Amino acid sequence: MIIPRIKLKDGIFEIPMSREFKKEHGEVKIQLPERLKNKNIKEVRIHPKYSARWFEIEYIYEDEKIETSVNSDSAIAIDLGVDNLAACFDTDGHQFLIDGKRLKSINQWYNKRNAELQSEGDKQGIKRLTNKQAQLNQWRNDSIRDYLNKSARIIINHCLIYQIGKLVVGYNPGIKQEINIGRSNNQNFVQIPFWQLRQKLKAMCSRYGIEYFEQEESYSSKASFFDRDEIPVYNADNPGKYKFSGKRIKRGLYRTKDKHLVCADINGSANILVKSKHRLSFERVSSGFLANPLRTYVS
């Protein structure tokens, strides 16, 4: 249900309905959330969830663009993954990881609990989604949404602190979904809605005057940034064989040509920055390349 305009009275608006429905069921009124009372509400959307067992309300409003002093010559690249949700590397050499293991644990507990509930339902001959399963699904969706919101905020805050005017996110779902990373990792990868994080980053970049780009990322995890490897573009119709200077080894480390160990995911994000063709000083950023960059945990 979409309500294009709402009329507020004491912070409350009424859901439009037919006379017959109102006569039978009475009026339905909703309290506008306190944090939205000074917003210019353009539209209200009411979504029935799980066969209308409950409803989710979405408020569409205009948000003012915030004036910031960012520098378009500075950029940050982001490589998205599972154990490390986001590996971030900027043109000043700053690098940090946003932990993704909490998201994995959410999905793992969800899968285990949902299997238990499904087994109980099967024993009782229940074919549809049970109330407990619906509540579990909602919990998982809310938990992941909250985690991604906070993760996006951490990245944008970094951009504002260091006046970074360009944000580049690695994007190549066709290749990452097809690689063999094991049954468990494949399941975790599919269950993490990276597109939601991209959309959140894009919206926040627009609000703060930061340019947002998505960069094709093929071979970024295999090439050695430290050795300045050329990074080709994957061609599914004619996949080539390429030899790179370094190699990804165990525990998330990448070994360069000179046996120097660096964080594999940071190496990937640095290569995404290279593929974006953004100007950067190799000497400036490579001097601080770390095997164990700062890991940020989302509370």
Automatic annotation (TrEMBL):
What domain of life does the UniProt record list for this protein's source? Bacteria
InterPro entries with a match to the protein in the record: Cas12f1-like_TNB, Transposase
User: Which family is this sequence assigned to?
Assistant: In the C-terminal section; belongs to the transposase 35 family.
Say yes or no: keyword DNA-binding present.
yes
Query: Which GO terms fall under biological process for this protein?
Result: DNA recombination; transposition
Organism, per UniProt? Answer: Aphanothece sacrum FPU1
**GO MF terms on file?**
DNA binding
Report domain Probable transposase IS891/IS1136/IS1341 positions.
Answer: 60-172
Keyword DNA-binding applies: yes
Listed name of the protein: Transposase, IS605 OrfB family protein
Keywords on this record?
DNA recombination, DNA-binding, Transposition
